[in-house]
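Lab notebook, bench 4. The sequencing result for the construct came back, and we need a structural model before the next group meeting so we can plan mutations. Quick request posted to the team channel:

Model the 3D structure of this chain.
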Amino acid sequence: MTTQHWIITVDDEHLETMDEVVSELKASGLVIDKVLRSLGQITGHTEDVAGAAGPDAAPSVQSDGAGAGSELKRPQAQDLAAVPGVASADRSRRHRVAPPDAEVQ
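Done. Here's the predicted structure in token form:
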């Protein structure tokens, strides 16, 4: 499985009702990692099934509690951004620096 990490920014009008936004994001398929209330952000992730195509291929994951043949489409940025109260849904990028003793990059 591959994991796609997300940073969700909540709009100013919904900061007081952030718990409702979190509930809607969970219902959309986002697994919540952290709720950063002072920043107005929520971090979370979605997972691809093994062997799925690239990040834009909209792979499926099996839902929690669903029957054996039931699958849900993995949420995309537009799906998460459509949740009321979400100002933006951005994929998180991870950057790594090679150790100091590594070959020239």
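Helices lie at 18-27, 77-81.
Will bring this to the meeting.
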